[in-house]
Amino acid sequence: MQDLHHWQAFCLALAREQAGDDGAHDLNHLGRVWHAARQLLASYPQADTLVVMVACYLHDLVNLPKNHPERHLASRQAAALASARLAAAGFDAARLPAVAHAIEAHSFSANIAPQTLEAQIVQDADRLDALGAVGLARLFYTAGRMNSALAASDDVLAVQRPLDDRAYALDHIAVKLATLPATMQTAAGRALAEQRLQWLYQFRDVFVAEWAPETLPS
């Protein structure tokens, strides 16, 4: 196997070179995705660790805002750029298609089904970072960048209104985050996702109690 540390350093430098100003998709996010992927790899030792690692660090090489009209194309653009830069640096050509597919398939908005175990692990690892405490921080950070309100002032749990996570940050838990465990490709990823989602529900209960105590179910 090609040297994992060598390519990790290369990918980190490339990601740093291409980094934008989105704090929810910064270098720390890439490191957390790789950390989550390593947790999943412990359950799937047959996966190609190098492919997974490279895809984790390069999956957001092209990162468009959530409200950008071409958001669904970003992962394909990232895969193309990553493939070109890796090939020029002498990365194993036989592994390039697997890396490209894992990058393309990680994206929720691209809606590309992962066809390999490596792509499944990368997708799960990326979605795990949307859950739990860090995922919650990323939720409100992104909502602030999109000028969303924290929550609806008079119907915080959307009992009598449609959910709208573009208008209200808290709605994003129900609109998207609550759906993520069911989309996990691996059993190990699903178990971790369920744990993190339960923590988000606990947070939401506390938030609602402080925001509007009368709306919290008894």
Structure description:
This protein has 218 residues and is mainly α. It is built from ten helices and no strands. α2 packs antiparallel against α3.
Question: What is the tally of helical segments?
Answer: 10
- Our estimate of the beta-strand percent is under 5%
Helix content: 55-70%
| Total strand segments | 0
Straight-line N-to-C gap: 57 Å
Overall shape: globular
Q: Kindly name the structural category.
A: mainly alpha
- Taking pLDDT < 50 over at least 5 consecutive residues as the criterion, the unreliable ranges are none
List keywords for this structure.
218 residues
Q: What's this model, at a glance?
A:
The protein is an all-alpha fold and 218 residues long. 57% of the residues lie in helices and 0% in strands.
What is the topology?
Blueprint: H1 4-18, H2 27-41, H3 49-58, H4 74-88, H5 96-105, H6 117-128, H7 132-145, H8 171-175, H9 180-183, H10 187-211
